[in-house]
Design brief:
Oligomer: heterodimer
Radius of gyration of chain B: 23 Å
CATH superfamily of the largest domain in chain A: Alpha-helical ferredoxin
CATH class of the largest domain in chain A: Mainly Alpha
CATH topology of the largest domain in chain A: Fumarate Reductase Iron-sulfur Protein, Chain B, domain 2
Number of strands of chain A: 7
Strand content of chain B: 15-25%
Strand content of chain A: 5-15%
Number of helices of chain A: 8
Distance between the termini of chain A: 59 Å
Helix content of chain B: 25-40%
Strand order of the largest sheet of chain A: 2-1-5-3-4
Largest interface: A-B, 58 and 63 residues
Chain lengths: 231, 587
């Protein structure tokens, strides 16, 4: 099978280039990651991040034939050849398929991604009804792979100012949690021309999410909360 | 050679559940903590845990920690240390409530309490009816837990060194541990990180096997570092083979599937677990179920063209239960087995999953090794928690949901102990002159090696050897040959060559360094397994099918430098309750 892979070593290469690989696959190679691992046996200089190989750790987000996804859950059959594999767009490349995610995580951290509840904790669990808990479904499952934020033109333009779909999905995860008490502060933080309102509902985020989550809809929900508190 | 040094109060290697639970405690206590992780913390392998965390909350059925303790002792096939098991089970409810207070999105019951489900090996009233003890967030409990712990650490301003790999332990002349040498993967730079306390939380190493549920990163780095610096490894013959890894892929299918009512079938459509465990059936302990699957395949009742797997049926649970309680399993089955479990069973085989052995510790997370005064002598400045440690709460076989509990309880306990110890110990030890020599020598060897073998090839040989010679059932000849073959593989591993000698994010170099650690783990496993002439928990010898308490109710200690074995007694005396004496183990 034919692959064309983005290569760049900052110590060696003046600029990035695409390198072609034609490799023999084994019947057990089902996902793109299997093929990349096979290429790495032949050319150990190919660098990529990967860990769980089952789509839950979020390490191997990359751009596959023009679309962001996880290498470990992208089946090889059905990929148009040569399969073009590039790093996630919009973030600085450290090397080959590895991007610098500092900006992405800075935005995630900016929304205070933790439960805020200043009451003294009870002896046992805080109660939450199944319906209240269901509000977190489709939000807490995020694996921080950055496929969504790096598919978002608004994030490309303003990665320092726009929180981006992944960060906003998590912002809503805490806004939606019946146990969290910081709704006003959270909304105050997001009430800003950039942090939230740079989202122009282009919907790339929901389109590429490998976990089938919908950041765009979470962003809409935050906007609704903003509107409701002003009236 | 001089290298850059940095000083901290505590260095933690590993940012999974145990490392992050400890980090949280230490950061909140105001200590200067450095947490090293090969991957961004939320990518640690805790993220892949599915079914739940054990705690006798009694939210669904009556329960108490003493019953949980009994189940854990029995599950361990009496090799677990009963003081540590009591310690863990007594604290279970508290650490789970704490996690809930941190924001963990547990599923809920109608009354608003934490949802609990049945799991294997858990009983009420000391071996009576099935208990409902596993606290769950759908089938993504590990993911929810790991993210919650990371989030809480963000709140506590914990300092993470992301994409750093620990290389070797630094020990002072008197043997005290004073930090680690580590590699910044992004820049290729080596540093000495000095600490008054060093905590290993480096997780598992089931990547020594060919078929494994484990992530690529699970290469036993902590065990390798410990073994190379003279610390023994405990009970390394005990590896859990999870009964339900996806056939041909290895990806885990949670025991929660059987907890929710799913069951296993052979090619005749027979629910064969009824023959092997008439009482607990599909919810018998994992070692029991994995042996049953292996027997079914061996006796020709496997499914598929090659009769090499069994089927896990859950369609009878109905689409609603599967969508609500097992959504991650459905996703995995559809992606990796082309089977939607709402309609079709999942093809499964026993798959290497969990290391019961590890770095020997007491229940405060202090590393202990025989030095002068006996096997429980504390190695000053050195702590370990989670899968890399052998406390031992899991003994010969771990119960499902006890690993997430283990990492919380012992991550916290180690941190509490470190805080106490550091009060008595306000100064860093002077750094020995040769602190970084070992690590730098390994790196120099890799940089200068010519005409060596490909790392991936040697790794593949190791995995095949371990799989063939040290699997679910173990045979005397195979083990003897296995020790020899592993000796050969270890020699080859010392002459590997990487073509890529670059500096920045050189993952070829990382994989070569990981192989050093895998080899330590694999060697320890094979040698320990060859010597233990009994069957206990997950260690099933074809030539010695019975447990032999007279000879073998003891822990193995393996020393890397001369591949020597030693043994130490099992701690049968709990902290406050009566001991559970060994008895026949049936489910």
């Amino acid at each position: 099978m034919n692959f064309s892979i983005y290569r760049f070593d900052p110590d060696k290469d003046e600029k990035p280039y695409m390198k072609d690989y034609d490799i023999e696959l084994e019947p057990t190679d089902r996902m793109l990651l299997d093929a990349l691992e096979r290429i790495k046996i032949l050319d150990d200089s190919l660098s990529l991040r990967r860990s769980c190989r089952e789509g839950v750790c979020g390490s191997d987000g990359m751009n596959i034939n023009g679309r962001n996804g996880l290498a470990c859950t992208t089946p090889l059959p059905g990929l148009k050849e040569p399969v073009e594999v590039r790093p996630l767009p919009g973030l600085p490349v450290i090397r080959d398929l590895i991007v610098d995610m500092t900006q992405f995580f800075r935005q995630y951290h900016s929304i205070k991604p933790y439960l805020i509840n200043n009451d003294p904790p009870p002896e046992t669990e805080r109660l939450q009804s199944p319906e209240e808990r269901a509000q977190l479904d489709g939000l807490y499952e995020c694996i921080l792979c950055a496929c969504c934020s790096t598919a978002c033109p608004s994030f490309w333009w303003n990665p320092d100012k726009f929180v981006g779909p992944a960060g906003l999905l998590q912002a809503y995860r805490f806004l939606a949690d019946s146990r969290d008490q910081a709704t006003p502060e959270r909304l105050d933080y997001l009430e800003d021309p950039y942090r939230l309102f740079r989202c122009h509902t282009i919907m790339n985020c929901a389109d590429v999410c490998p976990k089938d989550l919908n950041p765009a809809s979470a962003i809409e929900s935050i906007k609704d909360m903003m509107v409701k508190r002003t009236v | 050679m001089t290298i850059i040094k940095r000083k901290f109060d505590v260095v933690i290697v590993g940012a999974g559940g145990a490392g992050m639970r400890a980090a949280l405690q230490l950061s909140e206590a105001g200590l200067k903590v450095a947490v090293l992780s090969k991957v961004f913390p939320t990518r640690s392998h805790t993220v892949a845990a599915q079914g739940g965390i054990a705690a006798a909350l009694g939210n669904v059925t009556e329960d108490n920690w003493h019953w949980h303790m009994y189940d854990t002792v029995k599950g361990s096939d009496y090799l677990g240390d009963q003081d540590a098991i009591e310690f863990m089970c007594r604290q279970a409810s508290e650490v789970v409530y704490e996690l809930e207070h941190y924001g963990m999105p547990f599923d809920r019951l109608e009354n608003g309490k934490i949802y609990q489900r049945p799991f294997g090996g858990q009983s009420q009233n000391f071996g009576g009816a099935q208990a409902t003890r596993s606290c769950a967030a759908a089938d993504r409990t590990g993911h929810a837990m790991l993210h919650t712990l990371y989030q809480r650490n963000v709140r506590a301003y914990t300092q993470f060194f992301v994409e750093w790999m620990g290389l070797d332990l630094i020990r002072a002349e008197d043997g005290d541990v004073c930090g680690v040498t580590a590699l910044d993967i992004e820049t290729g730079e080596v540093m000495a990180l000095l600490a008054r306390a060093t905590l290993f939380a480096t997780g598992g190493a089931a990547r020594i096997f060919n078929a494994s549920t484990n992530a690529f990163i699970n290469t036993g780095d902590g065990l390798g570092m410990a073994a190379r610096s003279g610390i023994p490894l405990e009970d390394m013959e005990f590896w859990q083979f999870h009964p339900t890894g996806v056939h041909g892929v290895g990806v885990l299918i949670s025991e929660a599937v059987r907890g929710e009512g799913g069951y296993l079938l052979n090619k005749d459509g027979e629910r064969f677990m009824e023959r092997y465990a008439p009482h607990a059936k599909d919810l018998a302990s994992r070692d029991v179920v994995s042996r049953a699957l292996t027997m079914e395949i061996k006796e020709g009742r496997g499914c598929g063209r090659d009769a090499d797997h069994l089927l896990l049926k859950l369609d009878h649970l109905g689409a609603d239960v599967i969508r609500a309680r097992l959504p991650g399993i459905r996703e995995i089955a559809m992606k990796f087995a082309n089977a939607d479990p709402i309609h079709a069973p999942i093809p499964v085989v026993p798959t290497a999953h969990y290391m019961m052995g590890g770095i020997p510790t007491n229940f405060w997370g202090q590393v202990v090794a025989p030095y002068k005064t006996g096997p429980e002598e504390v190695v000053q400045g050195f702590y370990a928690a989670g899968e890399c440690a052998c406390v031992s709460v899991h003994g010969g076989n771990r119960l499902g949901t006890n690993s997430l509990l283990d990492i919380l309880v012992f991550g916290r306990a180690a941190a509490v102990k470190i805080i106490e110890d550091l009060k008595k110990n306000p100064h860093h030890k002077p750094l020995p002159g040769d602190a970084a020599d070992k690590a730098l020598a390994r790196l120099a060897r890799l940089d200068s090696q010519k005409d060596g073998e490909n790392v991936a090839q040697v790794t593949a040989t190791m995995r095949k050897t371990m799989q063939a010679h040290c699997g679910v059932f173990r045979f005397p000849d195979m083990l003897r040959q296995g020790v020899e073959k592993m000796g050969e593989v270890a020699k080859r591993a010392r002459q590997t060559e990487i073509k890529d000698k670059s500096r920045v994010f050189n993952t070829a170099r990382i994989e070569a360094l990981e192989l050093d650690n895998l080899i330590e783990v694999a060697m320890a496993t094979m040698v320990s397994a060859e010597a233990r002439t009994e069957s206990r928990g997950a260690h099933a010898r074809d030539d010695f099918p019975q447990r032999d308490d007279d000879k073998w109710l003891k822990h193995t200690l393996y020393f890397s430098e001369d591949r020597r074995l030693d043994y130490k007694p099992v701690r049968l005396k709990p902290l406050t309750v009566e001991s559970f004496p060994p008895k026949a183990r049936t489910y």
